[in-house]
């Protein structure tokens, strides 16, 4: 507790300094008095006694000062003096101070915001028990052209991994699921995003239920009694946070589910939209439970202490290879791959976020250079004063300290303002950046505060040190003799300014270039040809619960009458059904063989993504029929094994022969693979704007394929504004089945916007930072040039007086100003090329060396530079030579 | 009695701590006591006590209290804190080590 006493002492000395000083005097006086009276008692005369006492005591003033200096606040007093002096100096040039503070506030604010987000999203540990030992395990197909090689896992593989490997403490699985939640009382039915999790998932993650209990192993069985866990969100929203819901039943897909527990508010995995959890096995049927070819699950594993991720994975991979060999005819992966769970959660955001963080860092650096530049300019104006002070014996250190104090003042004021800006922007970003994972934990705290304080100190150093050192470098008497107007002035300082400016320009170029690339790639995404006509199309999703619509006849009847009713609505030109609209996602894929072809020699298995579609679908979306025909109305009702394929499919698998009339052989869940005859080839559509086109096969939507997805999308082409029809179409659904919720009521344009939201967000932000930096660079450029011209007024005056043409003067001034710009541009181009390579992974359809972006960036920079140069240049032209000479 | 010696560097703290270990004392008494006990050999420059006292107080090794002297005047009395007692032991130990080392050199070489 000694430090408390020490702190108390320090505080006492700080706040009661005057009374403490008086007491010290009193104490010393007492001492002297004692000595004097002792001396008198020893026989000295009073006057002699006093001087003798003082002799033995020493110099009271000096000792007084020494005692005071132990109070440890001296540096603070000096500092306060510096601050007061700095504030006074700054007040003398308020314009400079305001610009500098604003520039720093922008830089520090933006950097703090991004730091807050980066820290919460990328750096904070996951809210689970011992999160560093958690990994995600995926399947890895060697002979399959699938995404990044991390393929979701089949239930059978998961069960075997869990039973027969021992590198992990435990393994749990979860998969996405969806339910129609029936409305009780007057509530509307809704589609809830759900997940199926194995019973050991929550114990594995160390999650304690807020109310009730998690699943038991018995409940995690195919066909077991239905139970459900509520997330905190739906518990509050739909059940008013009433814990008496435990043990009661809710109706999901019109089946009763008993609520066993409520998850804590902090549990938002896999994302904040998940509303309910059911046992993993209950989302599967008996065949799927053991299937090795139904890839839909995510596997979380906890490493055993002392076991490395690599060695644990090796075992799984070896086992998976055995499974692959044992199921040769099915798409079973050859090995497994794993990555830390945190990487898995932030996978898609890591690069964009890092790019953004670098962008704001760049901007902060530019802001620093700008302030630094402003300081150099001002110190040039003050160099006489500095020289005088130097001549009078002011130490260089004191002068540097003074300058640093000013810089610190500006950066601290900028920091305070920046924190306010950042508090606003951080909240805005966290709520509007819809694709940001873990956004709910983004908040400013003491670490963020400490970070921004660190930024203040760092920026103060960056912005202040260089000018301070350069300003005090030539504190010699020579400077005093130097005429303030002497031609050329202080060349070294001009060089310093130009160098700073060149660096600033280079950084701006890099930032502009990266932003340009991101923006171009975003524009590319937005204008991607989906392969169909997307305007004036409304899409509405709905899912028919399997237990209610348990026969094909019921399903067909529903779809039929809905389509018929919708088609009769005024304003509707046509309507059709599809499982997933273009641009609406992957949905699923499957492997197949072609019986007419010899067994493939290639290592790649043939696969294509699948869609189920209505015959009308191709007409509604205006997807061209290239050859053959589409389904007839009859074929969609029966299971005639007909199939329509996309152009890419035909090109890839039937490059030498006509696909019409050929077959593909798929094994859904039938014991024997079935043959489907290809009857038509249609144009390609894109499933995801950021992904290349994939071969696609279309099955009849109502044919009752066993693995047909349960949800359908109704596509409505309209004559006018498609959104005007959203309510009428929903009413038709409700008229057919009031308990059936619809969701994702979106126009095709909105679907596109949704899928490009993330790219759009980071592209817009980076562009905003780049434009701000351009503005900062322009300010810097303008400042430097006006200063340089002001310095050369006499020279210019003489030139004009001696008969120089105004155009020559203009060329001189412009060339002088633009030289650092060209230098910066050159450095920046090299840096931009490097930056382009680094962000290559988040670019779509745009080369990192895109000439258009290069040209646009150079153009906008030069334009800004010329504009910033023009004003001082024009001022130079207006110089009256006589006036200029007279002021000398 | 020879000329009063200057204090060995850094020993003033030890002397002060040791002196007030018995009872609280004011500055003058401390100076006096050191002089007396050392048979006038150690002549503390009286004034330099005060910076040292304040430093020790700042370190929370001693605490100060204003109270009345026998003569009825107000004076600042210093006493050891618990931390000061530990510090005294530490300084004593290091002094013993140092002085015996010096002794060894002086006597044997």
TrEMBL record, chain A:
It is a multi-pass membrane protein. Residues 98-318, 508-719 form the MacB-like periplasmic core domain. GO terms for cellular component: plasma membrane. InterPro entries: ABC3_permease_C, ADOP, MacB_PCD, Macrolide_Exporter_MacB, Perm_prefix_1. Residues 359-472, 768-881 form the ABC3 transporter permease C-terminal domain. The chain crosses the membrane at residues 96-122, 353-376, 408-429, 449-469, 500-519, 767-790, 821-846, 852-874. It is found in: Cell membrane. The keyword Endoplasmic reticulum does not apply. One of its GO terms (molecular function) is transmembrane transporter activity. The keyword Cell membrane applies. Keywords: Cell membrane, Membrane, Transmembrane, Transmembrane helix. Belongs to the ABC-4 integral membrane protein family. NCBIfam families: ADOP, perm_prefix_1. This is Permease. It comes from Tunturiibacter empetritectus. The lineage of its organism: Bacteria, Pseudomonadati, Acidobacteriota, Terriglobia, Terriglobales.
UniProtKB/TrEMBL annotation, chain B:
InterPro entries: Metal_resp_DNA-bind_regulator, Tscrpt_reg_PadR_acidobac-type, Tscrpt_reg_PadR_N, WH-like_DNA-bd_sf, WH_DNA-bd_sf. Residues 16-89 form the Transcription regulator PadR N-terminal domain. It comes from the Bacteria. PANTHER family: PADR-FAMILY TRANSCRIPTIONAL REGULATOR, TRANSCRIPTIONAL REGULATOR RV3488. NCBIfam families: padR_acidobact. This is Transcriptional regulator. It comes from Tunturiibacter empetritectus. The lineage of its organism: Bacteria, Pseudomonadati, Acidobacteriota, Terriglobia, Terriglobales.
């Amino acid at each position: 507790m000694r430090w408390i006493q020490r702190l108390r002492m320090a505080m006492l000395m700080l706040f009661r300094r005057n009374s403490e000083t008086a007491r010290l005097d009193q104490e010393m006086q007492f001492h002297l008095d004692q000595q004097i009276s002792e001396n008198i008692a020893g026989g000295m005369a009073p006057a002699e006694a006093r001087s003798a006492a003082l002799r033995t005591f020493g110099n009271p003033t000096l000792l007084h000062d020494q005692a005071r200096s132990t109070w440890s606040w001296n540096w603070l007093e000096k500092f306060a003096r510096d601050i007061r002096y700095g504030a006074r100096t700054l007040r003398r040039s308020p314009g400079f101070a305001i610009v500098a503070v604003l520039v720093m506030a922008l830089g520090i604010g933006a950097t703090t915001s991004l730091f807050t987000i980066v820290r919460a999203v990328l750096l904070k540990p996951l809210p689970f028990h011992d999160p560093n030992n958690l990994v995600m395990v995926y399947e890895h197909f060697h002979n399959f052209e699938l995404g990044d090689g991390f393929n979701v896992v089949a239930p059978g593989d998961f069960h075997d991994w869990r039973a027969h490997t021992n590198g992990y403490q435990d393994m749990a699985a979860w998969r996405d699921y969806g339910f129609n939640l029936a409305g009780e009382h007057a509530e509307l039915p809704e589609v809830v995003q759900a997940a199926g999790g194995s019973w050991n998932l929550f114990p594995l993650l160390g999650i304690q239920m807020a109310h009730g209990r998690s699943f038991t192993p018995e409940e995690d069985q195919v066909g077991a009694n239905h139970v459900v866990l509520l997330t905190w969100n739906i518990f509050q929203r739909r059940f008013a946070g009433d814990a008496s819901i435990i043990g009661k039943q809710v109706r999901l897909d019109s089946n009763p589910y008993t609520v066993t527990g409520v998850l804590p508010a902090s549990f938002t995995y896999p994302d904040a939209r998940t509303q309910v959890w059911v046992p993993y096995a209950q989302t599967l049927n008996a065949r799927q439970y053991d299937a090795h070819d139904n890839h839909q699950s995510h596997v979380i594993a906890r490493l055993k202490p002392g076991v490395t991720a690599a060695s644990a994975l090796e075992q799984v991979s070896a086992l998976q290879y055995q499974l692959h060999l044992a199921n040769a005819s099915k798409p079973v992966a050859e090995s497994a791959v794993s990555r830390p769970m945190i990487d898995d959660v932030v996978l898609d955001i890591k690069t964009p976020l890092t790019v953004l963080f670098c962008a704001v860092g760049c901007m902060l650096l530019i802001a620093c250079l700008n302030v630094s530049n402003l300081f150099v300019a001002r110190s040039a104006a003050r160099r006489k004063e500095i020289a005088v002070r130097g001549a009078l014996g002011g130490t260089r250190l004191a002068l540097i300290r003074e300058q640093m104090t000013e810089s610190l003042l500006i950066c601290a004021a900028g920091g305070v303002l920046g924190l306010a800006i950042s508090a606003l922007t951080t909240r805005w970003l966290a709520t509007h950046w819809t694709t940001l994972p873990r956004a709910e934990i983004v908040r400013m705290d003491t670490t963020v505060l400490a970070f921004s304080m660190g930024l203040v100190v760092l920026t103060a150093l960056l912005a202040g040190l260089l000018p301070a050192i350069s300003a005090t470098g030539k504190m010699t008497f020579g400077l005093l003799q130097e005429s303030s107007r002497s031609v050329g002035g202080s060349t070294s300082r001009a060089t310093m300014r130009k160098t700073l400016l060149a660096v600033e320009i280079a950084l701006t170029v890099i930032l502009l270039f990266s932003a340009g690339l991101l923006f171009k790639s975003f524009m590319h995404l937005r204008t991607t040809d989906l392969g169909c006509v997307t305007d004036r199309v409304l899409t509405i999703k709905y899912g028919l619960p399997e237990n209610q619509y348990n026969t094909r006849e019921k399903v067909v009847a529903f779809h039929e009458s809905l389509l018929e009713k919708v088609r009769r609505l005024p304003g509707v030109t046509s309507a059709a059904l599809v499982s997933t609209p273009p641009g609406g996602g992957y949905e699923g894929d499957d492997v197949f063989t072609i019986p007419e072809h010899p067994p493939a020699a290639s290592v790649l298995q043939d696969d294509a993504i699948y869609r189920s579609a209505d015959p009308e679908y191709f007409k509604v979306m205006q997807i061209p029929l290239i050859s053959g025909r589409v389904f007839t109305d009859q074929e969609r009702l029966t299971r005639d094994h007909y199939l329509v394929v996309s152009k890419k499919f035909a090109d890839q698998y039937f490059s030498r022969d006509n696909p019409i009339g050929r077959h593909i052989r798929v094994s859904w869940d039938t014991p024997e693979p079935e043959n489907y005859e290809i009857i038509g080839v249609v144009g390609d559509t894109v499933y995801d704007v950021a992904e290349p086109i994939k071969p696609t096969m279309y099955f009849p939507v109502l044919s009752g394929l066993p693995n047909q997805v349960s949800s359908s999308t109704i596509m409505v082409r309209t004559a006018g504004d498609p959104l005007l029809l959203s309510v009428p179409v929903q009413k038709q659904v409700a008229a057919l089945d009031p308990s059936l919720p619809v969701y994702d009521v979106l126009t095709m344009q909105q679907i596109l916007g949704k899928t490009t939201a993330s790219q759009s967000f980071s592209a817009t932000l980076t562009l905003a930072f780049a434009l701000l930096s351009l503005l900062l660079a322009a300010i810097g450029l303008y400042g430097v040039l006006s200063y340089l011209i002001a310095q050369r007024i006499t020279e210019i005056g003489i030139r004009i007086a001696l008969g120089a043409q105004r155009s020559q003067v203009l060329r001189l001034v412009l060339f002088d100003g633009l030289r650092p710009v060209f230098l910066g541009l050159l450095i920046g181009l090299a840096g931009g090329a490097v930056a382009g390579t680094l962000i290559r992974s988040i670019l779509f359809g745009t080369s990192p060396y895109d000439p258009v972006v290069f040209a646009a960036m150079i153009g906008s920079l030069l334009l800004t530079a010329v504009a910033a140069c023009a004003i001082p240049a024009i001022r130079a032209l207006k110089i009256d030579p006589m006036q200029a000479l007279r002021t000398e | 009695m020879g000329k009063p010696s200057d204090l060995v560097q850094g020993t003033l703290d030890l002397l002060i701590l040791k002196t007030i270990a018995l009872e609280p004392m004011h500055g003058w008494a401390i100076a006096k006591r050191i002089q007396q006990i050392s048979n006038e050999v150690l002549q503390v420059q009286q004034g330099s006590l005060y910076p040292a006292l304040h430093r020790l107080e700042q370190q929370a090794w001693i605490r100060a209290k204003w109270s009345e002297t026998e003569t009825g005047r107000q004076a600042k009395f210093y006493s050891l804190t618990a931390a000061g007692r530990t510090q005294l032991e530490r300084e004593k130990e290091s002094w013993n080590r140092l002085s015996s080392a010096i002794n060894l050199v002086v006597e044997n070489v």
